[in-house]
Design brief:
By secondary structure, the chain is mainly β. 13% of the residues lie in helices and 43% in strands. It has a 9-stranded antiparallel sheet. The protein has a 4-stranded antiparallel sheet with strand order 3-6-7-15. A two-stranded antiparallel sheet has the order 1-2. It is globular.
């Protein structure tokens, strides 16, 4: 399977490898400066096999985590964000960009990214790559096709099921070390209407505590239109 190479602009020569069937897309960006509403996000701890997170919401255990309260508490912070509407060959998306974030140039983070965002001051980055569902037998097959070996040696990896704004899937967090550089990743594998998505944010591991909350808020605001 052909690999996607995603070269970050952390100036550390890091290479990310993903699944293979994504095609280059052309991006149009239209910015609307308006009061952004908080996203409704639901998360639950991931247990068991790959199909665990397909259970209906009402069937989840009492241990499920509802972060709607946290999202409400962040309303003031998100009032400083701006709504970014991004049109791609694989559909249209909207996302709330915090202050200091901007769209990266086409192919700056990846030749195949549908969405590319950056905050160069914080050395933090985010992108979305989409794959047509018809190219895979199932969501499990899509997940299995994602190869993260080129990121380097992984540690402190966690997995949990997650859903936000009609998307559902799995969130992985981990630290990857390559060439003595440690990078912290939040890596979502999500199922949308007609596509499977890789939603990836990252920053230097030394900046994890400073940037993790903002990265999570940014990722949870993604929605299909």
């Amino acid at each position: 399977m052909k690999k996607i190479k995603i070269i970050t602009i952390l100036f550390i020569g890091l290479v990310v490898t993903g699944c293979s069937k994504a095609k280059p897309v052309e991006e149009e960006k239209a910015q609307e400066y308006s009061q952004a509403t908080s996203s409704s996000v639901e998360e639950s701890t991931f247990y068991g096999d790959d199909d665990a997170f397909y259970e209906p919401i009402e069937g989840r255990s009492s241990d499920s985590v509802d972060v709607n309260k946290a999202a409400t508490e962040e309303t003031k912070e998100k009032s400083d964000s701006k709504l970014e509407v991004i049109k791609t060959n694989n559909g249209n998306f909207k996302i709330e960009m915090p202050t200091g974030w901007e769209s990266a140039e086409t192919k700056e983070l990846s030749d195949n990214a549908d969405i590319s965002l950056k905050n160069t001051e914080k050395e933090a980055y985010y992108m979305v790559l989409s794959e047509a569902k018809k190219d895979f037998d199932s969501f499990s097959a899509f997940k299995s096709s994602v190869d993260l070996s080129d990121l380097g040696e992984k540690s402190n990896e966690t997995k949990k099921s997650i859903s936000y704004n009609g998307l559902k899937g799995e969130r992985r967090t981990f630290v990857a070390k390559k060439d003595d550089i440690e990078v912290y990743y939040i890596y979502d594998l999500m199922e949308g209407k007609d596509h499977y998505l890789q939603c990836i944010s990252w920053t230097l591991n030394s900046s994890k505590e400073a940037n993790e909350k903002e990265l999570t808020t940014l990722m949870n605001s993604l929605a299909e239109m």
